[in-house]
Design goal:
Strand order of the largest sheet: 1-2
Mean pLDDT: 88
Number of helices: 14
CATH superfamily of the largest domain: MetI-like
Number of domains: 2
Length: 315
């Protein structure tokens, strides 16, 4: 009998055994359903990371791990002494300009789409199509557009008797061309910001208007603070992506590294260390640089989260 005067049911041994079997069966099913992604993570993420960390302390110029020679921190020292490393760092930072450019453009487009426009659904589909296209196909298309002699842009300029722009061979024009490709693939940012606009507290906006605030003041004082959690997420994800850019740089170049080595970003440099400069640098230095880049990204993200505490508004 419990404290309320009610009789409690006492389970028999058979009921206890049946309950234990039921719990074990549920745990087994849950473990069986959760284990495939966990095993996949161990095999295809954790194990390669451990192997790459081990290789970063060795000299290896082939795929045969038995030929690896332990060199300690020698690879890390050689990577930091490399002149091309700092070129790759500057190119990567230059490409990171795509983050604020993309966010500003996405903010403008999302703000426009929140209003009633003609064929709004069609416009949203058109804006999102580049996001689901293959990066390789998109890069090849833009390479055709920017081609120095017979590209779409230079063909039009020639027809207007305007000097051609050498996007692919002029180091001053190469990176702006690459940033244009990044701006074109901006669909996800627009969708996220449009959803964030829809979740803004309308009563606060109306209260600000009643108090005499202009539309510009409403946007800067009410709407934009409400968008900051989404903007922070987009800054974080886009910055991580920009710091790891390789595909566009690798495909769009005509000589492998671009004019004045403008296409040589950090991750692309890792790729070339491992598969192009194999005889001189090899897998060991590539793995060492990959861990240096990972550490840089972790530090930048830590700073990003610290700064985010000062400007992101969750209220």
């Amino acid at each position: 009998m419990d404290c309320y005067g009610k009789y409690l049911h006492v389970r028999s041994d058979a009921e206890k055994k049946a309950r234990r079997r039921k719990i074990l069966r549920r745990n087994f099913i849950a473990t069986a359903m959760a284990s495939p992604p966990f095993i996949g993570f161990l095999l295809f993420t954790t194990l390669p990371m451990i192997i790459s960390l081990a290789i970063s302390f060795t000299e290896l110029h082939s795929y045969n791990l038995s030929l690896a020679k332990f060199t300690g921190f020698g690879n890390y020292v050689e990577v930091l002494r490399s002149d091309m490393l700092w070129t790759a760092v500057l190119n990567t930072l230059y490409y990171c300009l795509s983050v604020p450019l993309n966010l500003c453009l996405a903010l403008f487009i999302a703000n426009v789409l929140t209003r009633k426009i003609v064929c709004g659904k069609a416009v949203r589909v058109i804006l999102f199509i580049p996001q689901v296209c293959s990066s390789v196909a998109v890069t090849l298309m833009w390479q055709w557009i920017f081609e120095d002699n017979y590209g779409v842009i230079n063909t039009v300029l020639s027809a207007l008797n305007i000097p051609k722009i050498h996007f692919m061979t002029d180091k001053n024009w190469f990176m702006p061309a690459v940033l244009t490709i990044s701006l074109w693939q901006n669909g996800t940012n627009v969708v996220l910001l449009e959803a964030a606009f829809a979740n803004i507290n309308k009563s606060l906006q109306e209260a600000a208007r009643i108090d005499g605030a202009s539309e510009r003041r409403v946007f800067w004082s009410v709407t934009l603070p409400g968008l900051t959690p989404t903007v922070f997420y987009m800054v974080t994800m886009n910055l991580i992506t920009a710091l790891q850019e390789q595909t566009v740089m690798q495909i769009i170049t005509t000589n492998g590294v671009g004019p004045g080595y403008r296409a040589l970003t950090l991750v692309y440099y890792i790729y070339r260390m491992a598969f192009t400069y194999t005889s001189t640098m090899g897998m060991g230095m590539a793995c060492a640089l990959s861990w240096i880049v990972a550490l840089i990204i972790i530090i930048i993200m830590r700073i990003n989260f610290k700064l985010g505490q000062k400007w992101v508004c969750y209220d």
